[in-house]
Amino acid sequence: MTDFVICVDSRNIQKIKVLVQSIRDHHSSVRINLITEADAECDFIDRMYIVPYSYMYQKTDPYQRINRCTYLRFWIHYAWPDMDRCIYVDWDTLVVGNMDDELDGDYIIKMMCIGSVFNAGVIYFNFTNPTTIKLLDGIEVRLNTDYLANKSE
């Protein structure tokens, strides 16, 4: 089974139906996982995880222009610790072919790079590699960790 993860704010969840359908059209065994900031009705998603804005990274200059949902991808391994690998896709993406082959191999994180420019709209995460978790834990330092503290209580 291939795990896909989509992060989007709750007011835009209905807009990802086309993305979800494009994933299902090209993958025979797939689980669609959604991370959002508030609970919402969504019958076309297999699993949902909620990270309230108040628990997320508090944006300061120069990052105020970036939507907070951008940071939700860093919560994937906390949301589903049972997930070994996944494909994160931005909510404005359209899948036009099967992507399973890219999940194979011993990598940390894969993303598209053209020259020195990275596209973080599609990211392959390998959570079985300890270096991946170490990198994401380093990013956590920049995130508001109150959520994790409150979750464990």
Description:
The chain has 153 residues and is α/β, with parallel strands linked by helices. The chain contains four helices and six strands. It has a six-stranded mixed beta sheet, with helices on one face. A hairpin with a 2-residue loop joins strand 5 (109-114) and strand 6.
Derived from helix and strand composition plus strand pairing, the structural class reads alpha/beta
Helix content: 10-25%
Helix and strand element order? EHEEHEEEHH
- Rg from alpha-carbon coordinates: 15 Å
Quick recap of the structure?
The protein is an alpha/beta fold.
Quickly list its features.
153 residues, alpha/beta, six-stranded mixed sheet, 4 helices, 6 strands, globular
Write the SSE topology:
Elements (H helix, E strand, L loop, with lengths): L1 E6 L9 H10 L3 E7 L10 E4 L25 H4 L5 E5 L19 E6 L2 E10 L3 H11 L5 H7 L1
Parallel strand pairs: 1-2, 1-4, 2-3
Antiparallel strand pairs: 4-6, 5-6
